[in-house]
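User: Show me sequence and structure for the first protein, then do the same for the second.

Assistant: Starting with the first protein.
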Amino acid sequence: MISVVLATHNEVRNLEKCLLAVKLWANEIVVADGESTDGTVALAKKLGARVIITTNKANFHINKQLAMDAAAGELIFQLDADEVVDEELSNFIVAIHKKVLKNQLPVGSPVAWWIRRKNQFLGTFLTKGGQYPDPVIRLYLKGKARLPQKDVHEQMQVDGEIGWATGHLLHYANPTFADYLRKFDTYTSFKATQLKEQAVTLSLANSIRFIFIKPLLTFISLFGRHRGYVDGMAGFAFALFSGLHHLVAYLKLWELYADRSA
């Protein structure tokens, strides 16, 4: 059995395209939904998914792991609602599953696989700026991988060898700039909370580091060293806002400390 697992929160715009791309070969679809209010749950059930209702958490990897733990398949594929599997990747997953069923994976074979991802930003798939091939571990044999659940950009921890899948995930994370800004706000708030938990202080040294140094170095790295300029305006904007992530998160940390002292 192949299990496809997702965590969702208000993904009605993305979910149908996502699930239709896997429906022909997925034996089971498990969705952990965090308090959606837009019809996501009804749509997921209509498309054949088993839905687990839970709370919406700032670290959505907790809900991803919840769906992963509920999967029954020998081969599990963790997917985000704004991602679409291309034909080549679909064929790879089906081929791996056939080998699993026939016990044709030799000793020492991979138990999980890196998948290349194409990220859309401002209407184009980024090719540089550290955004391609953007490998993610999403496909694994049951019981061989799990998420640490400490950060929203972490990779799975794998018990065994990791291989490379063929094909791509098409990541439609930001169909509009407004969508990007909404997620930017969510991620910077989460980062601010992490900084507070790490007891990062509002010192002069930290202020210089987060307001000036980290944003500048991030921009130079993505736009210069990783050649984000090849992607034109989209590459420039992505590098710029990636740098501003540090500044905004630090200003939100400042706000968190101010709220505590009020």
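Switching to the second protein now.
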Amino acid sequence: MLKYIVTGICLLLETFTCQPLLASIPPIYDVEVIVFLNNDPHDDGESWPRPAQAAVFNAAFPEGEFTELGKSLYALNNVSYALDHSRSYSVLFHRAWRQLAYDRNEAVAYPVHSIVENGRNSVEGTVKLLRERYLHLDMDLFVMSSNGDSKILYSDDAGNVPVFELREKRRIKSTELQYFDHPRFGVIARVTPYIAPSADDDAIDIGSSDRQTVDDSPLLSNPAAEEDQLTR
């Protein structure tokens, strides 16, 4: 359960009683992320040094901050299917969750951890959603591939090279698809505002059709240069 969700309680109370309480609650969003490997990278043989990663991989999952969504509620299943059935790409990670969007000081990162079934590729890192004046999505992800026919036993094993890092802080507009690019892998993400069903809509699936419409017009601007950082 997400912290501080009091919408259901407020529906049982008078509107004037709920307004101050609801105003203090951060907005709720559904976040969906696909990380995929580029099987035919066009990097002209460029290589990157191994980044320091222990601080990311040893992070504990913040219990109570996220609600995992079932795959039937994913909005990007068709995208994931198309990528995974292409010779050019392989999906490494596909998850969706619901969370509160705090400001930068309070924002909590969602830990990403996935070892692909073949045991030769792994993705680690964090995805952080935050909202202040604008909505932001921060990516800090590492993709590892084992050498030759060996398999990845532990994703932070020093023998699992090369390691590629994508680090980017981006201002986004909700409901729009976001693409984070790297020569070796990519990320597709979508952040959708969520509103709980009213008392008259108990039969509605809260994760599918009942979406909040908000005015995100300030988010139409291009990200500032200092907010977009890609580290390879």
